[in-house]
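Model: You mentioned two targets. I'll fold them one after the other.
Researcher: Yes, keep them separate.
Model: Target one:
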Amino acid sequence: MAKKGNRIQVILECTEQKNTSVPGMSRYITTKNKKNTTERIELKKYNPFLKKVTVHKEIK
């Protein structure tokens, strides 16, 4: 049987694209350990619409 772990799936969304008039939204799905990381995570990921690396924050 599979263990019930503390890892949950989270969605990361680009924060810089909201301020621009570029259509589309860059989102990534990743996992985090909810016991070790209780706050929302921020990672630098590639945004194909802006064609550069931007900060992506966890959304609910």
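Model: Target two:
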Amino acid sequence: MSKIRIGVVFGGRSGEHEVSVLSARSVINGLDPERYEVVPLAITREGKWLPPAGARAALEAGVVHGNGSTLAVLPGGEQALMSLKGGAAESGLPRLDVIFPVLHGTYGEDGTIQGLFEMAGIPYVGAGVAGSAVGMDKALMKAIWAAQGLPQLAWQVVTRADLELRRQQTVESLLAKPGLPCFVKPANLGSSVGINRATTREELEQALDHAAEYDRKLVVEEAARKPREIEISVLGNDRPEASLPGEIAHGHEFYDYKAKYLNTGGQETLIPAPLTPEQTAQIQKLAIEAYRALDLNGLSRVDFFLDETGAIFLNEVNTMPGFTPVSMYARMWEKSGLSYGQLLNRLVDLGLERYSDRQRNRVDRGV
């Protein structure tokens, strides 16, 4: 039986570039060499693509530099990406059976690169174009969950234009709903970048201005009372499954960028999270409902708040979470009985399954 040729794409233009390289290194090392032929493809911070040889060097270095040979990539159809050299299209890259995009954040899990793979006709791991886009856009995500009646904290969406054209009315509206204290977030960003907690009007206005530096659309959300942060891994296409939940105990006012990556002392991850059987079952049920509501595929980590009264609220999803063996997504599945290698196999199979199902769609007008 011939090996599956799998392209592992990593790096990219987001602030999570280094994490992506670490994740890709773990994925490549975890893929069974008896089953897969790996073709690494790296993207620099500037958006330049490196050929496989340059990508292998980037894996060793831990960061993708574009000093050497680069490719201009376009969809080639028939499960191929084409490269441009001297203004002419060349095959330059091997035909791929499936792609594993180990890309976090903007330009990686927001539907943009998924659109490239769709145009190229290549199966890929993870959510599709629409699911990736709404999974990244917290405003759209929350609107869909609200339409499905799923539990969330009070929230409101404002734009940069609202702040520039009707600032006072916008701030007054936010003071009424969701009120103070609240969190202000860029709608389209990861790793808690641009997020601030506001307890006064002055802090609210400062937080709005700060978040508006990162996105034209902002989400302002009620602050949960003494929340616990619960995460859960979901795996599957039309029949998704949920892992055991995990909890991140960090000791900070909220889990911001510094708490995640810089000041990590005293953090503790608990898998399974210390919850009652009823709470665990409820969170698993809500995670699957949230996943289906966004029409996700392959994988996602679903994050919750559990407040001091025991009330459960959806926070957000991450359609391509960190993917090292010690990342929460993989660890929660390991504690649920699925090893890292088995998880990778399942994800590849799910990507191929989704592609096969999509091929059943008619593209002609019919009669």
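Researcher: Noted. Anything on target two?
Model: The two ends are 41 Å apart (CA to CA).
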